[in-house]
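User: quick one - fold this with S-adenosylmethionine bound?
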Amino acid sequence: MSFSSYFSEQARKPEGLFGRLVMSSVFNIGNARLNRLVYEMMSIRANDRIIEIGFGTGRLIDRMARRLDGGSVVGIDFSKTMVSLAERRNRAHIRNGRVRLIQGDFIDVPLEKGYYDKACSVNTVYFWDRPDLAAKRVAELLKPRGRFVVGFEDAGQLKKRKLEDGVFRLYSVQEIEGLLFEAGFRNGIEAGSRGSGSSVVNCVVALK
Ligand SMILES: C[S@@+](CC[C@H](N)C(=O)[O-])C[C@H]1O[C@@H](n2cnc3c(N)ncnc32)[C@H](O)[C@@H]1O
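Assistant: Sure. Structure tokens for the protein plus S-adenosylmethionine:
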């Protein structure tokens, strides 16, 4: 297996020592700006019920949970390695019931429909086998007018990193907007980008 396939697979599902030591730093440092943008776009209110899909090391969950008073965050990630790192970071929130972390594939983890105010997913959309079904699932879980914030890197920029095509599916902002509209987000879709040159991060905010 080439390093590029190994790295791409680890980005999709970090495992073992490489996942725990290398990928966690890649996520914490390399994804920090995009996570900050998504955090801002979530416009968290104290009593929000939130879902994060593919939380990685759990930094965004920690940040969102600190804003809550009465609200809660459920995180879903299928990597055992990431779940254990995120559990450590969010131990106090888990103990006081503000955060629940679930290890599993987002597409089939049982969650209550029409219950959540907001959902987000950062740098994870590339790995969805059936993006149409995943986006519909998020729409189903949200309340009417619920908000879904999708953060992802610019496709042109990711192409230059020689990631494995079979693992990473790259999207333009327009493609994500179309995907969310088709999934039932019909009350407004807007996009925001941050950065310039070879470092652009994108975020699409959609209302059900
Ligand atoms: C590239 S990392 C991004 C992590 C974090 N959101 C960030 O921005 O740093 C992708 C994460 O999504 C998780 N993931 C990918 N597909 C998933 C799925 N279908 N269900 C649950 N977790 C998934 C991976 O285990 C990994 O932790």
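One thing worth noting: The chain has nine helices and seven strands.
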